[in-house]
Amino acid sequence: MFRKSFILIFGALLAISTAKAQHPDYPFRYMIGFSWDVNVPINNSFVSKTSLEGFEFDYRHQLKENLTAGFEVSFNGFYQYVPRQTYHIQNGAVTTDLYTYIYTLPMAVNIHHYFDAGKHVKPYAGLAIGANYSEQKIYYNTYVSQDENWGFLIRPEIGAIVKPDPHSGFGILLGARYSYATNKQSTFKIDGLSNLGFQLGFVFMQ
Amino acid sequence: MNRIISFLIAGLLLAGCYKSPDTSQLSSDFVVVTNFDDKADFKSYSTFVLPPYVGLITSNAADTILDPQYGDQILASIKTHLEARGYNNVTNNHQADLGVSVTALKEVTIVTGWYPGSWWGYPGWGGCYWYYCGWYPTYPPYYPTYVYKTGSLVIELVDLKNVDAAEQKLNVIWTNWNGGALGSSSTNLQNALNSIDQAFIQSPYVSAH
Q1: Helix residue spans in chain B (DSSP H)
Q2: Which of A73, A75, A145, B165 is the most exposed place for a label (fewest CB within 10 A)?
Q3: Count of A–B CB contacts within 8 Å?
Q4: Is pLDDT above 50 for B114?
Q5: CB spacing of B31 vs A32 below 8 angstroms
Q6: Distance from C-alpha of A97 to C-alpha of A83, rounded to nearest angstrom
Q7: Are strands B55-58 and B98-106 parallel, antiparallel or unpaired?
Q8: B124 and B74 Cβ atoms separated by less than 8 Å
Q9: pLDDT for B147-181, tens place per residue?
Q10: Which domains are delineated in chain B?
């Protein structure tokens, strides 16, 4: 359902974008991007399984040639099934199977620098800083234990925008980044949320 | 205008893709929780007394006792486990070091939230435990609170050897809460019996040796 709607929306946006008059590559005033956001948890005992359920929206405004500032917002779902086992708690024990689940909504402002590498490829490197809202849940039998928290987010990122047609405003976005957020939850033994993230998406430049 | 459309679409996609995992893979076995008083010396006890019936608390005030066709099997399992741990079953309250309390809870609507001991003295079950009438249970301060939403079986070991006569308090030294979604009566019974087995497995300290 997620992927089907993504393809439909992309098709609509592509139609909107290519209907516009042609214009030079750069400068562009702004670009908007939509990407699939995959995240691999690092040092996370609560959920260690890679999240394929992620989506990001980017907005970048050109400040001057090869420099943009903007914001990015995404949401990601991480979940993992743990078969029945016994956990020791203070003066006791609990036996159950369970699902652990993390939902994150990172929101950040960003700045990116672009490098020259020909007409078709524009590599970039940048930094995003912002906040990370997160919900953590444990599902067991018919019960759920949950909490929500906020953290500070810092995220260095690199990537490239690939333009099949240098004169059109459409590009493919490829990115990789390391995200660190300070969210904490002592019962779930969460002391910070770190991920290695990969983006694959599209940008529309105007 | 296109920018606005793009932002709207982005917003819809962001809002629409929050999803929870498919929890149908979760087992229907009861969750088994045990807690113990770390000041209790389980080796200092030698006898226990069982209740004649398993208590039953539901939203129907007329329910007081779990049908003995199920309750008797639950009591028999607890007896077997305690005897295997070196405790002797006595039928006379006055000789017992440990009292065993067993209560089943079913589909209770929670108003103020449950806490350990809230199932004691429930209307219909009477106010006498062994030969202590009107006394109240007391728990170590770090016991977590539980909210019972579906079905639960609560088993407790109560210290009858070292009673607090001045405060009229009976110390609960071990609590086993087993709970989860209820199914057919035979499924619930099997679930309860499996849970009791697991409760003793994860409580090796409950032993007279």
Answers
A1: 2-16, 68-84, 185-201
A2: B165
A3: 112
A4: no
A5: no
A6: 5
A7: parallel
A8: no
A9: 444 788 999 999 999 887 888 888 899 999 998 87
A10: 35-201 (3.30.160.670)
With beta carbons under 8 A apart, name residues in chain A contacting B181.
141-142
**CATH code assigned at A67:** 2.40.160.20
Give the model confidence (pLDDT) of B35-71 as tens digits.
999 999 999 999 999 999 999 888 777 878 999 999 9
Residue A126 has pLDDT above 50, yes or no: yes
What pLDDT is attached to residue B125?
44
| The amino acid at A205 | M
Q: Distance between CA atoms of B77 and A178, rounded to whole angstroms?
A: 54
DSSP string for residues in A20-79: SPP--SS--SEEEEEEEEEEEEES-SS--SPB-EEEEEEEEEEEETTEEEEEEEEEEEEE
Domain around A134: 2-205
Residues 6+ apart with CB under 8 A from B76: none
Query: For residue B100, how far is the Cα from the chain centroid?
Result: 12
Q: Is A107 on the interface with B (CB under 8 A)?
A: no
Tokens of A153: 């987010």
| Partners of residue A141 in chain B, C-beta under 8 Å | 26-31, 179-181
Cα gap A93→B41, rounded to integer Å: 18
Count: domains in chain A: 1
Give per-residue pLDDT as tens, B136-149. 666 655 544 444 44
ipTM, two decimals, is: 0.74
